[in-house]
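Exercise 7.
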Amino acid sequence: MEDAAIIELYWVRDPAAISETDLKYGKRLKSLAGKMIHPSDAEECVNDTYLAAWNHIPPLRPLHFFAWLAKVCRNRVSSRIEWYRAEKRGGSLGGVWISLEEELSLCTPGNPTEEAWDEKELGRLISDFLRGLEAEKRKIFLRRYWFGDSIAEIAEQFQISESNVKVILHRTRKQLKANLEKEGVRV
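Solution. The predicted structure, written as tokens, is:
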């Protein structure tokens, strides 16, 4: 079923919208969430994503349905990670997400509660930076830091060596860091 038809099901409040969404995008959303947290938590985050879709459509009518769902799902995963990281629950969470977060932290500002920076402005700066990259570098960066793909998965998808992927990511992070510092963001 096409995205427009699924969104229309949400608009008429037909419960089939959720099953159609799961049928079309469930695997991809579970894969996205599963790369960051435990599979049982990932499934719960995906279900929360469907609930968010039900609650926000209408009045919202996403232009790029999967991108919107992925964003909602990542936000749910981030909330779950923050919940696990709470001091009263031990304050740590192992896994892929942490290593990706640490890897990306090399070129982005530290803790937002300690630094005085506007998240929307930072998002705009990063988006502008990504738009200025060559298409392949941008896709590799997004596959790693948005979708959480492993180096091996990216290398296979782009048919390049793993070391080449690592070099591209390293250089892109360095460029991003320099770009943010040039814009006055303390990294």
